[in-house]
Structure formats: structure tokens, C-alpha cells
TrEMBL record:
Keywords: Signal. It comes from Catenulispora subtropica. This is Secreted protein. Residues 1-27 form the signal peptide.
Length: 166
């Protein structure tokens, strides 16, 4: 074989091997859902963020301090388990939980939105576009373990609303 042909074959083999390794490495980063159960530490995310979380909202027309709108489709919330040792900043399912409900803390005059129900960790769920939320400002989303027990502890995440129609 000529040296030029050998180099081409070596390059082709290297590229083929690299192409085979990249999907395997990417697949390893994906976490399969894990059923929620007792005695597990956890935290919540909105839009893949556990800090500086944002819910994009559509609020057409003039917007005032009490204006409301609906979340943009395609946004998610999620709960993830944490392996001890942990700090007190995390939630805890306690001795009885098999589910975590997530909901927004809104003014008492606001529409009550149904919670997002999680039965598995690492399983993103859609933020409902039917929710009625403020067009701006911040609030908290609380992730509450159910069934509750004396050892259960909720997790709270600050969420900002951003009007994309402005």
C-alpha cells in the first residue's frame, strides 16, 4: 500500500471510532426516571434550572402590575434525587411519600392552578399553558412530598416571570 492510502485509511478509521464513541458518551449523561419513594432527598427545577429559574409568559396588550397571562408551551419542571450527604437546602420525601406536587405561590386573589404531579425523579413534566400567572415579578414554586409525614420537607425555588409579548 502506498503511504498516502494508508494515511487515508487511518483517518477514516479514527473518524469512525470517534463517531461511535460520541453517542455512547452522550447517552451516559441521560438519567432514567426513578420512582419517587420514602427517605429520599430531592430538589426541583424549572427550565432545567435550580437557581435563577424563569417562566416565560404571554401577556398581550397593555400590561399593568396586576396583569396575568399564560406560560409559553414547551417549558418544564422536574424533581431530581440527591445522594447524601446533603445540606438542609434540599427537600426530603420523609417516611411516606411516593409523589411530589409542585405549585406556584400566588396572591390569594389569583386563580388557583392545579399542581404538577411527579411520581418519578428525572422525569420532566410540562408547565401547564392553562395556568394563570403574573406577567412579571417573582414568586416561589414549592415542591411538596405526598403522602406527608413528620419527617417530610418541601423544597422551594424562586421563579421569575418574563413576558415575551412585551
Amino acid at each position: 500500500m502506498r503511504p498516502h492510502t494508508t494515511r487515508r485509511l487511518a483517518l477514516a478509521a479514527t473518524l469512525a471510532l470517534g463517531a461511535a464513541v460520541i453517542p455512547a458518551a452522550t447517552a451516559a449523561a441521560v438519567q432514567d426516571p426513578i420512582p419517587i419513594g420514602p427517605n429520599t432527598y430531592f430538589y426541583g427545577l424549572v427550565g432545567d434550572k435550580a437557581a435563577d429559574a424563569v417562566i416565560q409568559v404571554v401577556c398581550p396588550g397593555p400590561v399593568g402590575p396586576t396583569s396575568t397571562g399564560h406560560p409559553v408551551s414547551g417549558q418544564t419542571a422536574e424533581v431530581r434525587s440527591v445522594v447524601p450527604p446533603v445540606t438542609s437546602q434540599y427537600g426530603y420525601t420523609g417516611s411516606a411519600a411516593h409523589q411530589i406536587d409542585a405549585g406556584l405561590t400566588l396572591p390569594s386573589s389569583a386563580t388557583v392552578n392545579p399542581p404538577i404531579v411527579f411520581t418519578s425523579f428525572f422525569a420532566p413534566a410540562a408547565i401547564p399553558t392553562t395556568w394563570v400567572v403574573p406577567c412579571g415579578g417573582t414568586t416561589t414554586m414549592t415542591f411538596v412530598p405526598l403522602a406527608t409525614s413528620t419527617t417530610a420537607r418541601s423544597y422551594t425555588l424562586t421563579v421569575a416571570f418574563v413576558n415575551i409579548a412585551a
